[in-house]
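Lab meeting, item 3. Inverse folding demo.
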């Protein structure tokens, strides 16, 4: 899960992660300004009894979340 988070937080990553291998994925796209916040939240959500994986894609401010 940490690998998926790291790859997803790298912006538009070209690595492939099978969606079925992620635990409760939540997809977030938008400004790069949200990246530090998403990283902190992702760590907390990954440690829950039922983990949640944040998948972030830096699409730019114009797209938004």
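The presenter then showed the designed sequence:
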């Amino acid at each position: 899960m940490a690998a998926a988070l790291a790859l997803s937080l790298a912006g538009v990553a070209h690595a492939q992660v099978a969606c079925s291998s992620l635990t409760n994925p939540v997809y977030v796209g938008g400004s790069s300004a949200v990246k530090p916040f998403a990283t902190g939240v992702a760590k907390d959500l990954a440690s829950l009894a039922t983990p949640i994986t944040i998948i972030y894609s830096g699409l730019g401010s114009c797209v938004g979340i």
